Amino acid sequence: MMKLRNTVFEDIEIGQCAALVRHVEMSDITGFAALTGDCNPIHLNQDYAEHTPFHGIVAHGMWSAAQISAVIGTKLPGPGSVYLSQDLKFVAPVKVGDVITTKVTVVDKDYSHGFLTIDCQCTNQRNEEVVFGIATILAPTEKLFIDVESPEVRLVDNLC
Q: What keywords are assigned to this protein (predicted)?
C-alpha cells in the first residue's frame, strides 16, 4: 500500500523539485511493449538490436516519459495533477541495467490559470542526461491524502 499526498497550487514554490529513481530491467521493457503494443525489435530482439547504432536493446523512449508522469502524478504536485502538455528531447539511449533518476522542478506558476511549468530531466547512473523537457501541469487545488494499492502486472498473452 502506498500513501500518496499532493501539494496544492498555492503551496508550490518556484524551484521546488521531486525525484524518482528506477533500475531498468528487461521486464520493464517487455511489460511496456505489451501494454503499448510497441514491439519494435530494437526493444525486444537482442540479435536485431546488436546491429543498430545502440549495439543492444534499449528501453522505449516513452518508458522514460512515463517516469516523468510518475513523479508528477505521485510526488509533485502529486494526486489530482492534470497533464496539459509535454515537450521532450530524447538525447541518449536507456539500456537494461541503467539506473534512471527522474527529476522535476517547478520553473513557473501561472496564477490566473493554476498552471505550473515544470522542467523535467532523466539522467543515468553516470549522470548523463537521457531525456529532458518541459511540462505544463494543472495543479491540484484540494489537498489529498490517498492510500493506493500497488498494481501487480502479469503478462499472459505474448503480443509481441
A: Lyase
